[in-house]
Specification:
The complex is a heterodimer of chains A (245) and B (222). With 245 residues, chain A is mainly α. In chain A, 82% of the residues lie in helices and 0% in strands. Chain A contains eleven helices and no strands. In chain B, α1 runs antiparallel to α3, α3 packs across α5 and α6 packs across α7. Classes of the chains: A mainly alpha (245), B mainly alpha (222).
């Protein structure tokens, strides 16, 4: 264990929250996420074989997920470097590998400090406050994990009921649900300002354009359409910032 | 084995994998803080932890329930377990799954669609884990050589563009529904003090209701 004697509170918190043992303890949950994904992959490939699905389809599906996630993962990568500085390396690694975005975790860490009556990162923020912050993050994440762990089968029944076995309606239902969710997410971005609104519009227009023109001739490109749209959206938004700000 | 039987078996196995892992993860996420308190003898008063819990629940508590319900039709059974464990749902999981469904021309509700969206999400889980783990190892070094505008672009605008792209893709197929999907939350967000959970639920279920009306009147076809 680290010798904390003679250290200020800030130094203590920094030393302890980056102690090597926490990489191992945080790693358990990170590894569990990988294990879950591996189990589902095994199940998917086995089922695909059993029902004689074209073996190209599952492989392609995995590749699309893997490739399309690179863009958003780069965003997570950068946010994480910032979060490591404020909540410690191991905890940032754990929290951004599972449910809860950077803003959520920072809120939880701050709430922990507030409950102690101090500010995150100040000299009054002791190891006890660090513990409250860590408890708050775990308790917050627990909400989603427990609810889905327990109630997901009921949600499946609910969807069956709402769809009423009408497969055509189920297709519309899934699309309408996604439109609602992404409408909500986009509304949040639009309210942030012109730069974000431009990113939303450029992302939407370029995605639709790429999917309906180039990809019609070269279907292989579809896998990269999300990445292309993300880059185009970013270029337009950054361009606006450079020119008008 | 016929498709129906296989789908039933699929759902059973999915629950057997997902339910225990998500519940276990809720518990293992406490290991670091329990070790911290024990080793460094810094147990906080229970009342302080409860206060913090109540404070965080006030901000996010409704989302613990509303998000899984609202996202369900887009994620499906396995997708829900995977996504609410691994996070990054709007910016990563749903876009990846829906793109994979598009590319493979899978019909929602079929076994093929379940397999395709599951594997796409699994692929994205590994990408994210590689991303966070490499951030640990080389993060600061990479950040110090990246030009500021790229850093800004990735942190401020990447999500906006992905949200727009995914919405655009659905909007082309169902423009009549898309209008309401965007208009409802834009208007709701102008109401000061309305909690996020309320906005999500009204948006998703409002959009579903309108879609149902259009569908039964034959305005939209599958």
């Amino acid at each position: 264990m680290e010798n904390l004697a003679g250290m200020s509170n800030i130094e203590q918190v920094q030393t302890v929250s980056n102690a090597p043992i926490f990489w191992v303890l945080c790693g358990i949950t990170v590894a569990l996420s990988a294990v879950q994904a591996i189990l589902y992959m095994r199940q998917s490939f086995a089922t695909a074989k059993k029902v004689n699905l074209d073996p190209k389809i599952p492989r392609e599906a995995f590749r699309i997920g893997f490739i399309s996630a690179i863009g958003p993962a780069l965003g997570v990568f950068i946010v994480m470097v910032g979060l490591m500085a404020s909540i410690g390396g191991p905890m940032a690694w754990l929290r951004l590998s599972i449910i809860g975005a950077a803003a959520t975790e920072l809120t939880a860490a701050n709430v922990g400090a507030e409950a102690c009556g101090v500010t995150l990162g100040s000299e009054q923020y002791t190891l006890v406050c660090l513990a409250v912050s860590w408890f708050t993050m775990a308790l917050n994440g627990m909400g989603w994990l427990l609810f889905t762990g327990v109630a997901t089968p009921s949600l499946e029944k609910l969807r069956d009921k709402v769809s009423g076995g009408d497969m055509k309606w189920l297709g519309v239902l899934s699309a309408a649900c996604s439109l609602g969710i992404f409408g909500y997410l986009n509304a949040g971005e639009i309210h942030k300002g012109i730069g974000n609104t431009i990113a939303v519009l450029a992302g939407a227009v370029s995605m639709v354009a790429v999917v309906n023109t180039v990809c019609k001739k070269h279907p292989k490109l579809l896998e990269y359409s999300l990445g292309i749209a993300m880059i185009v959206g970013m270029i337009f938004a950054i361009g606006y910032d450079q020119l008008f700000k | 084995m016929n498709e129906n039987e296989a789908l039933k078996q699929w759902k059973k196995t999915s629950i057997m994998i997902g339910s225990p892992t998500n519940i276990l993860a809720a518990a293992t996420a406490f290991l670091p803080v329990l070790w911290l308190c024990t080793q460094y003898n810094c147990w906080p008063p229970v009342s302080t932890v409860l206060t913090a819990w109540a404070m965080i629940a006030a901000s996010f508590g409704a989302l613990w329930f509303c998000e899984p319900i609202s996202y369900y039709a887009s994620l499906g059974l396995t997708g829900t377990y995977l996504s609410f464990f691994a996070g990054n749902i709007g910016n990563m999981r749903v876009p990846c799954a829906s793109l994979a469904l598009d590319v493979t021309k899978s019909v929602p509700g079929t076994l093929q669609a379940e397999i395709v969206s599951t594997l796409a999400i699994c692929g994205s889980v590994f990408t994210n884990l590689i991303g966070t783990t490499s951030a640990v190892i080389v993060g600061s070094a990479v950040l110090s050589v990246l030009p500021q505008f790229i850093v800004d672009g990735l942190t401020v605008y990447a999500s906006s563009a992905i949200f727009g792209a995914t919405f655009g893709n659905f909007a082309v197929k169902y423009p009549q529904i898309a209008v309401f999907g965007l208009a409802i939350p834009v208007i709701l967000k102008m109401v000061p003090g309305l909690p996020a959970a309320v906005v999500i639920v009204i948006t998703v279920f409002g959009t579903l209701l309108i879609a149902r009306m259009f569908y039964t009147k034959g305005i939209i076809k599958a």
